[in-house]
Amino acid sequence: MTYDYKKIYGASTGRAVNKLPLERLDLQYNRIRSLHPKAFERLERLEELYLGNNLLPALAPGTLSTLAKLRILYVNANEIGRLSAASFSGLDSLVKLRLDGNELGSLGDSTFSGLPNLLYLHLESNRNQQSSLRHPDIFGPLRSLHTLLLASNSLRQLTGGLFQHLPGLAKLSLSGNRLSHLAPDAFRGLGSLKELRLEGNLLSHLPATLLEPLDSLEALDLSRNALTALHPAAFGRLGRLRELSLRDNALATLPGEESDTLKRLYEFLCCDAHLLCCWIFNAKFIYSLII
Which domains does the chain have, with CATH numbers? Predict the structure, then answer.
């Protein structure tokens, strides 16, 4: 059973729906400011809960703990400023969690405990202005994670080894932040990563060994940074890379040592207009100069 609960103008949700045999509950685009501690206690069948675009300032510990079958949870576009260690307790079946568009600042190392089967985590567009992910074990409990989206968070730095406990991660987005440099071990442990998005940051260089752990990488976006040069071995280990974007940087040349990797590219997506020398290696290599 699906239930769309629209136009709730009161301050909180009580127990209006918890006797219904619901599998999907949509409470989006209301003005909900709080959740009754027992609002969902009898919704044992619930698999999808949508609380996005409300006014929630927090998720009280235990509020969702009875939803053992919940697979999808949207709490995006609220006013959540912090999460406790018990915010997601009992949600062992959860595979998708949207927390984007909130006001989250720092995250603790137990914030995501209790989510062993989570595949998709959205943390984009939170409003913290001086944030950094300081705890190296923040994502430690999320061993099954496939997609992690951290775009537009004003991140200035990443703790080394931050993603080392995510062996199955296939997509990572760090676009639209304020990253000016990356530690050489920033991507340690990401041997399964296929797509990495770093566009729209302030990167002026890449450490020579930064991308070495990413031997499964197929798509890399470094556009709209401040890159002036690339280390000769920057892409040397990326034997599966098929898409690379370097547009809107300040590159004057590409180092010859990286040609073995570039030969394997099916698409070389747009170098910067200042790029003086690029060679077309074979018929599968498509190069476009954007002015």
Answer: 1-154 (3.80.10.10)
